[in-house]
Design brief:
With about 130 residues, this protein is mainly alpha-helical. The protein is built from eight helices and no strands. The chain has one domain.
Amino acid sequence: MNEIVDQIASKAGIAPDVAEKAVGMMLGFLQREAPDGPIAHMIESIPGASDLVAQYNGAETGGGGLLGGLMNALGAGGGIMGLGQALMSEGLGMGEISSLAKETIAVAREHAGDGIVDEVVASIPGLSQFV
């Protein structure tokens, strides 16, 4: 996956270590939000993606103490906007997040095919405007 992360980082114009965590967070988000079959196929098709999901899945929802736990329980900060907030807290701007999302989806298309990726994207409200 390092080669793929380096490719995404280079095209998005961000540091590889930041890209690695961001891609893992994005894929983890997709794994939680998209239907099991298509997203499982997509992640399994990308070399090393399963490892990134295992390492960073949920990174954007951790912490926050009691207030964070209450907000999560109430559903605040979730969905695509919650992911965006988490990525911004990692120091990424909206332009960088958009570039990362587009490059990550492009890599997914290369490995899993358009049909699977389109199904995943279509299943998550609001995602298509970012990719």
